[in-house]
Design brief:
By secondary structure, this protein is of the alpha/beta class. The chain folds into two domains: about 70 residues; about 120 residues, no CATH class. Helix content is about 40%, strand content about 15%. Strands 3-4-5 form a three-stranded parallel beta sheet, with helices on one face. Strands 1-2 form a two-stranded antiparallel ribbon. The longest helix has 30 residues.
């Protein structure tokens, strides 16, 4: 799926890809950041004959392919890393919303697409936080209720007007035959409700 993400979103100069690990300290967990530099300079094609224009385009295509290959290699190395530190004992998915809030406020014109490669099991033990490993929502109704409770807190610190520019994709690591205990649909109901309240467009699929 990572290769698909790169191909769909890296088209030339300025397109950027960041990767964050989701764990106890998600806000400080950026481990990968690359920006495309491949571009067709207007002066290279201005008043150029068709042959020269074709050469410029071919060079751009080659530069972009090289960049994408670099993205693939580095990204796959990053995603295959096994976190054995103490930070992996918790999963702070909600912290990613603060990361996104900071990102979209830094450049309001930027189209931001987010891909969660995660089971989306929030697991924070502090007071007032959710730990779906210990206490998952029992059904859709409770999941929606919890999401609404958390939204009232989040809306106080997030710039919700900017969140409408976000597109969120969730890739769940489950097979269609996975049991309800492992892939609790109420957890996804929680995130669907929360993202909807935030005004975010989301797409959820199973790998």
């Amino acid at each position: 799926i990572f290769k698909e993400i790169v191909n769909q979103n890296i088209h030339g100069k300025g397109d950027k890809l960041d990767i964050y690990y989701i764990h106890e300290n998600t806000a400080k967990a950026r481990v990968f950041s690359l920006t495309s530099k491949a571009a067709i300079i207007a002066g290279d094609t201005l008043n150029a004959n068709p042959t020269d224009v074709e050469m410029v385009k071919n060079k751009f295509d080659m530069d972009l392919r090289k960049e994408k290959n670099a993205f693939f290699k580095k990204g796959e190395e990053t995603l295959s890393f096994l976190n054995e530190s103490a930070s992996n004992e918790s999963t702070d998915i909600l912290a990613s919303l603060d990361v996104l809030n900071k990102l979209i406020k830094s450049d309001e014109s930027r189209l931001v697409k987010v891909y969660f490669l995660s089971d989306m099991v929030e697991s924070m033990t502090q007071n007032g936080r959710r730990d779906f490993h210990i206490t998952p929502p029992r059904d859709k109704s409770q999941a929606e209720s919890w999401a609404k409770e958390d939204f009232t807190i989040l809306q106080q610190r997030l710039d919700l007007e900017k969140f409408t520019n976000l597109h969120i994709n969730i890739a769940l690591p489950f097979e269609p035959t996975t049991t309800r205990k492992e892939n609790n649909p109420a957890i996804i109901n929680y995130w669907e409700t929360l993202f909807s309240l935030l005004g975010v467009e989301e797409n959820i699929e199973e790998l």
